[in-house]
Amino acid sequence: MKYTFLGIIIILLFLPIDGLSSSGWQRKVVNYERNQYKAGFQNWAITQRDNGWIYAANSSGLLEFDGVNWSLYTVRNNIVRSVKAIGNRIYVGGSSEFGYFEANNRGLLVYNSLSQGIEDYGGEVWNILEYRDRIYFLSDRTIHIYNNKNKQINSIDAKTKIDCSTLYGDKVYIGSSDGIFYLNKNDVLEFLPVSDLFKGKKLVSLITYNNNILVTTAQFGLYIIEGDNISKVKSIADNFINNNQLFSTSVSGSKVALGSVQKGFFIFDLKNPSYKEVFNLDNGLKNNTILNSYFDKDQNLWLGLDKGISYIDLNSPMRPLFATVSPIGTGYCSAKYNNELYLGTNQGLYKLNKDGGYTLIEGSEGQIWSLTVIDNTLFSSGDNGIIVLGPAGKYKIDLPGVWEIYPLSADKNRLIVGTYSSFSILEKKNKRWVFSHRVPNFNGSARGFVEDEESYNFWIVNASRQIQRVTFDTEFNKLINQKIYPLKGSSIGENSFFRKVDNNLIICAQDGIYQYSRITDRFDHYAQLESMLEGPRYYEYLSVDSLKNIWFVSDNNLKLLPYVSGEYKSDIYNWGLSDELVGNYESVHIIDSASAIVSVDNAFLKIDFSKKGLPNRPVNTYIRKIVSLKNDSIVSYGNTEKQIFIPYSQNSISIHFAATDFPSAPDIQYSYTLKGLDEEWSVPSANTLKEYTNLPVGKYLFEVRAVVNGSRDSAITEVEFTITPPWYRSALAYILYSLLAVVLLFILYKKTIGKQKKIIYQKGEELVAQTKRHEEENKIKDQAIYQLQNDKLQTELHFKTQELTGYILNVIRKNEILEDVKKDALAISKAIDDEKNLNSIRQKVMRLISQINSNIDNDDDFEVFKSNFNLVHQDFFELLDDKFPGLSRNDKILCAYLNMNLSTKEIAPMLNISVRGVEVNRYRLRKKMNLDRDVNLSEYLQSL
User: Which residues contact 564 (CB under 8 A, 6 or more apart)?
Assistant: First the structure.
């Protein structure tokens, strides 16, 4: 009996604390496993930079996490045991290695070893401390002090194994199984007398707390050293401490987080004795061995595990019912009845127990759609019927396929039920509700209906997505009237539920909220409510709770418009949950003045809306890297200040970015634009990279911002880069092209000048020769004319004929020669036209052409010829015009020569054409005169 009692005591000691901690509503736990961060299992220490990024000392190197991307940086010997972010540097300590990472001019973290210069150095560096210009690396038995000013390292042998360390005031304290020591001003270790108590005990941590030192032992509890006094800490965590081997401790304010080897970790508050939280495999962690814990700048907790990393949001106003996969299925509805919480899921109806457990209500198995409390009775409506919990006990109404139940304003003993295919009526008999009958003449799903102010009138959206008003008789045995209410230019979406806001009947359509007007008997835009919410748009869900708060869903985010002091406030609180809400089955139920139960995919979560949404902390967005898509090489890391030049051959790139806001990570979207290419900002999306292909040469500015929960924007982050031209379009190439062009132009110029000089010389010689020929020909012609004149002095007619002939021959020959001269002069002018230094020559030649043109006057010569010829040959041309009005001037001249009985050979040079040309002209003239071939043309003309 004695041993049995002792056994019971032992069982009670080992039970409870874990079970108690998992009762009730949980914290959101995010687990990062090895397959996500692509490194080793163990994570020995965690720190955070000023930009919010998390760094973990991993067994494979240094891990970096920006909220989206994990990056691994290796060191010599790979293992990293300790890490501390100080300014722009990340100091690390590992296996026989310590140093720091610092970004280079490309933004990439580069490791600088400090331990390689130390001879015969070995051991694991378990902690890093900072005081002014000194960085302390504490290994198993040695303290290495790195001076940032003189870059010197001083190593101090501790002569004992260092289990833990801390900086208290301006001194470094170390804990060991020999007690606690500290470095004095001369860097000599001195024993702390008050620590005799710890000799022979394993110390887990030394932490500065409230100007004292908090000491954690592995198995003997916590102590506080205050000056020369030491006292043991008694707290709600004692049972956990006594039954677990502690491995790590972290402190934030008065909160203490204790990490164990076997059972996860325990959080308690030194100033709030009743506060405690336990986290382990049962409520979200993936591993129970806590190697390290770290409170970030938002006072949320990061855990370095033996396998993985966990993040726990300690400040979120939202707490899920289950930190792991829901054992009760997906949540659909909830209700508080008799001070107990009932939950409807796809598996059945559950009651939440006081200890945080849950109980399935017998007979409720299956899909539950709604929970309604009417007349102090809870009605659970679902796929398999109605479960009733009330004063008459628990019983079931076998009416399958029930959406929801509502009371009737005109009849307290009857209820109206909306089912999958119609309306049905329940009635109260002997204090129990029973099925009465199905309402006739109405077929279709009756979900989302509401009773009108006029009794027996109901509003519902029918199967055709039309608003319909139906009226029944008082016994619900007949459909008296029904009317369709169209919406101008709009339609009803999936949210087909009628609601009442301040006694106004409303429904959500695709383009906004519509309100029923009894005066006009139609639905119009509810502009006042739209302006209070987010304007005319589609609302996936909208309901008013018992406190008159308006809950709605837009862009897949749950939001709240609070009703305070008799009015709606302008601030809308965004709760996010875009990946957790059950679309078209959203449900929010108020359980008290500050808490609401929300149905989600993983059962339910509770919102403390007294916190008014998520903290409005600033969100920082960062450019992580620019990657060339051509060869998958990284062009630049981070928001580097160095100018980024990308070769044209690598003009297809991807830009990676991330926003650091760990609590809101699932609800962050990004909007971006590339100035120089995009005309406007992109639609927000969850994508964390943007690809651009075949970018033209030029300068670009990429801008990105994060959008949290669809409302809170980060500042704009930008990076500028330039796509440089290819080598054949570079500045050097254009200089070479210019030089080559100059050389070619010079060579062409020299050749052209030489050629032009030669042409000018040749043309000059030809012109002189032609002038001599012209003079000789004129002399010959003059002699001939004189001879003809002497031969025809016999008679006046004969003289006039010879004179006319000579005149014509002289004029025509002159024109012929001048035409040749003109052609030659034009050729010379054209040949030298491009030469700037030959302008004067070209001007002289052009003047020559002008003079020649002035001497060529065919019309005047022809008139003279015509007048003389008419005198000699008795108006010959007038006769031709009368008989043959279609003859041309050349035809008339040919007729004159033929009339003078000149031969073809004689006519050819006078017309400046060939003999063949004269014959062709004769043939054409014969056709114009319609003469037969037998008629002699010269004789015919002479006969005129």
Answer: none
